[in-house]
Amino acid sequence: MAGLIEAIDVKRKMYFELEGVPYHCLDKEISTPTARGGQTLVRLKMRNLLTRAVFDKTFKADEKFKEPDLEDVEATFLYSDNDGAYFLDQTSFETLQLNNEMLGDALDWLLEGTAVQIEKFEGNPIGLQLPIHVELVVKETEPGFKGDTATGVTYKPATLETGAVVQVPAFVKEGDKIKVAPETKEFAGRV
């Protein structure tokens, strides 16, 4: 059986289970009482891993949580349709499906064959982690102007092959393959 974690011991980026639902701790704040006999309280900013909702909740320091039955599996993106997206588990070779709510804007960064981490709770897929950088081709952008250089700080919008729009330096042109950080949607360089 999984161990128990006291609220006071929960740290940032830690996972825990509350009432049968897995959570990810995003931030923690401890309130120590000044009066004798007062209880230490722990305020957690947490993300529900099933609904992706983020909220704050306060617990007594000695409240206990279960360790969740979470697992990350390596998978590759296969395709998407109206029901969601499909991935191939690289260990078991089974097809895993994530519905559109679980995906968020992930399809903006995925091409067939892109490697991702699928998050599973009690053996069922609940979400995914995108790579730190993805490489995509610029399909449409304004042409650069004479004198634009790699050191210029002028940015312009560019539409990528997946349909995502990001800001790129003025020297980037249509057909260029670029690296983008999906988490921040920022240009990270040309490939």
TrEMBL record:
GO molecular function term, any single one: translation elongation factor activity
Residue span, Elongation factor P C-terminal domain: 134-190
Keywords: Cytoplasm, Elongation factor, Protein biosynthesis
Family: Belongs to the elongation factor P family.
Protein name: Elongation factor P
Annotated InterPro entries: Elong-fact-P_C, NA-bd_OB-fold, Rib_uL2_dom2, Transl_elong_fac_P/YeiP, Transl_elong_KOW-like, Transl_elong_P/YeiP_cen, Transl_elong_P/YeiP_CS, Transl_elongation_fac_P
Keyword Transport carried by entry: no
Protein function: Involved in peptide bond synthesis. Stimulates efficient translation and peptide-bond synthesis on native or reconstituted 70S ribosomes in vitro. Probably functions indirectly by altering the affinity of the ribosome for aminoacyl-tRNA, thus increasing their reactivity as acceptors for peptidyl transferase.
The Translation elongation factor P/YeiP central domain, residue ranges: 72-126
Alphabetical list of HAMAP family matching this protein: EF_P
Alphabetical GO biological process terms: peptide biosynthetic process
Pfam families tied to this protein: EFP (PF01132), EFP_N (PF08207), Elong-fact-P_C (PF09285)
One GO location term (cellular component): cytosol
Pathway(s) of this molecule: Protein biosynthesis; polypeptide chain elongation
Domain of life: Bacteria
Primary location: cytoplasm
Xref: NCBIfam families: efp, PRK00529.1
Location within or outside the cell: Cytoplasm
Organism per entry: Terriglobus roseus
